[in-house]
Amino acid sequence: MATLHDNLAGICCMQILKDLGPSGKGDFQQIFSKNIRRIGTSGWPLADFQLLDYDNNYTWAFEFKPPGQQKREYVTGLGQAYTYLNFADYSALIVPVMSNDRFSIADYLSKTSKLEVLSNSPVAIFAYDESRLLSGDPGSLSLIRSINNKRSEIPPNKKSEDSGGVFWTWWRDTSDTELYRLLELSDIHRGKSPDIYTDYVWPDFQKELANGKVCTWEGEPRRVNSGFSQHKQNYKIPLFRLGLIEQDSGDLTEEGYDLLKIGKIFKPNSAVFLDEIARIILTRGQHLDLIIQLENYQNSLARDAEELQSSKSFFGGFETWLDKQGLIPQRKPGRVTTGNKNSFIRDEPKLWNKLHLTNVKNDQYFERGYGIKFNISRITSLIR
Length: 384
Hints:
This protein is of the alpha+beta class. The chain contains 13 helices and ten strands. The longest helix has 17 residues.
């Protein structure tokens, strides 16, 4: 179901988290604590995944390169890893042992990074064997260039500890037509101020929400007359996490213009527009990663397991499973862990259903005794 890049990057992430976890061997420990978890990443440049060391408040951004590429692709990857130091405390590059011409590219990059001019840089390099990695061999990933010294400077664009959030782009029921309207307003007001989302886009959209001028997924008028501060962020955050608008200014990115153009040509409620939303959600939004983890979780359960008897138990169990894997942020002390409003997984399953990524039975995407059955053929066609 996943692309080779996404699949192997996910496996590497899991191996690193497992090694750095409380019961891990610590081969990849370096200067990091064992209290480390995966968090989200957004903006440009975009890392493949990012970890947060909660004990030290270190962020660690990773660039993964798939096998079978030319040497220049892997050399470019090293440069990408260095650019991540603008927003992360540390970075890493993950490459195969060999390039497509059988050149020992991992060894070459390791030696390059150890030149005196680069020797103290806070960048790690991992090498992997593709066949062993796919087979689940825990020894398939090796650390060939370690980070031995703590970084003395704070990254110029470092974000706060809580800004990363979950690794996927979370969703709060924004419909396809609402997404289109927000992009349209960003285009209308482009360049009018340093923060067009706050000054123009949101005020216009808020009026439309209050007057029922925008619609839900079902095509019904949505009327909102309170909680506007929270709604403002709920609509904005997915837009910049998906790379559709600039986080600070609210102006459309190139990807945002492309999606808006599709909506203008084919209409915002068209199958073409919906397909492009789904593709962006799966790839840039990293919902493909989340779906893979959900399938791993539900495949680990016996068919009569308590978690498979109701939707609430199922998703509650999934969050517990993600927590144990280090794949969701550390909860703040005293945070309630039950109830929909306090869950990390909320409207994502509904979104998958609306994007036709699930196989629905009797109008329900959760099937007792199984979990969620995904539309594998559709997902595969979207990410090709």
